[in-house]
Amino acid sequence: MLVESGTYGIKGLPRPADAVTRTHSPKNSIPYVEKLPVRYEISVLASSTDPVLRRQWTLFVLALEKFKLKPVTEKLSYFQVAGIHGYPENTWDGAPEPRADPENPKPGDQPFGGYCNHNGLNFPTWHRPYMALFEQCVWDNMNDIIEHWEKKHHLKDPELGLWKSAKDTWRMPYWDWARQQSYNEDFAYPQILIQGPWSLATGTSRYGIFVNKNAKRFMGLEGVNNAWVANNHLANMTWYPINKNQEAREHDDDDEEQDDVPKEPYFKWNPGTLADSVNRMFCLHYNDTWGKFASTKWTKESHENSNTGFLSLEYIHNNFHNIVGGSDYKTGIGHMSDVPVAAFDPIFWLHHTQIDRLLAIWQSLYPSLWWDKCEAGEGNVRDDQPDDPLYPFHDKDNGNPKKDFWTANKCRDWTVFNYQYDDLQTLSEKALDSNGALDECKFQNLLQAYIQKTYPTTQHLLCDIKKAPIIKIPDGLRPKPGSNSWYDYIINIKYDRYALKGTAYTIKFYLGGPKGENFTHYEPQNYVGSVYTFGGGSRETDSCSNCKKQADESILSCAQVPLTIQLLHHTIDGLTDHPLETFDQVERYLELHLRWKVYGFGGIEVAKKDYEQLSKTEITVLRGIGQPQHVAAPVKKDAIEGLALSSFSLMATDEPMPESNIKNPVAVPPTYDNDSYKPLASITHGKAFGLQKDGGYRPKRE
Questions:
Q1: Where is composition skewed (Basic and acidic residues) in this entry (predicted)?
Q2: Radius of gyration, CA atoms only, the chain
Q3: Which sign does the torsion angle of CA 320, 326, 331, 332 carry?
């Protein structure tokens, strides 16, 4: 337990005595430690009937509550640990003082105070020891609870031993928001997070804070969660499958008969933008440097000739903070969408453990990509380096408070914190050589196949359309007759995260309108994606004494909105606002009906007079080519079968691979040829911030 006067070493939970490293080459390799405790997906942990996992879930809930009740003056209180991320901007564990809120932030400054790293190359690695710290704090409280049971309630063996054993193998759960939840077969909150009474009042808000116009203040600050509203926003990140009811509406005008038609989907897959984005992020060469994968930060050296590399882990992370927290006063806002207070919502830790898992998956696929190419900062701005101290996280107990910090290089191997992820551990165990060591090539093939089965893409949707009895793949989708490739459409966005003085804003994209008219209906059914800058709400500031020194004023960010899945749905959903029949019409369709709006924090549309503040925004639509990929089948029949079901993982596919197919090539994430993408200026010409036919961009409203 902590000595308040000394540094607190973040070392991970105790490693079991029989946990042994089985990696051929420790340097720049894929870590594998047999019998290492795993981090489970939260729905698995919460709903399991396994006695050990039931005890772990009970301990987790009790320990989290005990953690939250600790006095705020304690270094390891929930208040102080959550406060590391932003407010109240206090020094923690003797580290150098955190940044203060800058009064007039330059574009290169972090827009808010605190230790957290955003829009920088250490974004994912800074959060790794942070999650380990939280994991240790919860575990320490588990120890206290069991000790209380033993001393005050005389809990004895064998029951005492069972609880201690469960505690020793517990690890922090994650929430995989990019795969469908098994309880409703949709993208949704884990069932445990939407059940009352906990989901309605947790001390923090999700879509629970509103403006009280009469009192000129906010309502709901006491911690009200509108779980049903939040869940609906998450479900809207996907697309509903075409079903027989929709087919009936196309072929029958009798409403009564339509109601009797069973609503069975034609499509097994329901690809959402989250799942598609995650899959793309892992595709070979989609992000060919650490910087492109890790951060939203745009640099001329890395991005000027890159078309696919605008989709980063941090961009997906930012949007999800907005989905969970809410940033519109009409539907309610919450802590998660506001950087300085996001960590005070317990869901923050589930979300960022998932971010760490995605980081571990990417590292497993591309272990050599690590500050591997020049990741120079713009102008005078020094970029993050892998040996920079990750303040305020110390790696030694009672060490030097000004030194002994974790760095990205020190925590590159996540198993140094003595955890692994459930699916990665299971896949590793299926890819061992005859000596029990990890066969990295086999493991990577299995991992790629698992990603493709778990996170559906355009390729899945095309397969299901091909099997549908009525619907067909639209003409013009294939670059060549008879090929399996497809035209892929994306929107690349370059933006200034600090344009509105660091206050968060959202660029929302809409596609749809009356046939043949140059018009867009800004309606929910036409929403196709967004970019959330993840700053925070408006607030008064009082100091800039410790602002980060970044003199260059051209620090920009980048993001990407894939469009192909949405376009496919527009060709087959039959909605009046989606008059697209073939892909031969796509470019004209986008010219007429693709538009965007910018909303400030609170959901208020940015006024025309303020567009000059957004003058560095650049929006480009590109068309490239996606190509399905396969790898040789694993030797063992059971290597792929049930992958998504093993190790208590959530169901990501409804059937195992048939035995007859085991020897056939296995699908892995597609490839997207960076050089095949060409900008389509006619689509964005004349639109605010869009690429013009003369090659420039202009911040002008239509």
A1: 96-106
A2: 25
A3: positive
d(CA 33, CA 381): 39
* Alpha carbon distance, N-terminus to C-terminus of the chain: 61
Whether the Cβ atoms of residue 270 and residue 240 lie closer than 8 Å to each other: yes
HSE at residue 182, side-chain half, CA atoms within 13 A, is 18
d(CA 492, CA 560): 5
Q: DSSP code of 635?
A: S
Q: What is the pLDDT of residues 68-122, one digit of tens each?
A: 999 999 999 999 999 999 888 899 999 999 876 566 655 555 556 679 898 899 9
CA–CA separation, 446 vs 258, rounded Å? 44
Closest CA relative to residue 164, chosen from 142, 137, 136, 148: 142
Query: Phi first, then psi: what are they for 509, rounded to 5°?
Result: -105, 135
Sign of the torsion angle spanned by Cα atoms 125, 411, 169, 68: negative
Q: Are 565 and 503 in contact (CB under 8 A)?
A: no
20-204+272-299+336-454 has which fold?
di-copper center containing domain from catechol oxidase (1.10.1280)
List b or e across 673-685, with b for residues whose CB sees 16 or more CB atoms inside 10 angstroms. eeebbeebbebbe
Q: What is the mean pLDDT of residues 363-375?
A: 83
DSSP string, 552-610: -S--EEEEEEE-HHHHHHHHHS--TT-----GGGHHHHHHHHEEEEEEETBSPBPPGGG
Largest CA distance in the chain: 80
Tokens 């951060």: give the residue: 295
Q: What is the pLDDT of residue 648?
A: 27
3-state secondary structure of 76: coil
Q: Six-digit token pair at 430?
A: 């299926």
Q: Which two tokens stand for residue 440?
A: 């990295």
Look up residue 416 and give its two tokens: 């140094």
Segment 289-306, tens digit of pLDDT: 999 999 999 988 777 889
As a whole number of angstroms, the distance between CA 323 and CA 321 comes to 6
For 267-325, where are the alpha helices, taking DSSP H only?
Answer: 273-282, 290-294, 300-303, 313-325
CB 477 within 8 A of CB 583: yes
Tokens 């690429």, residue located: 691
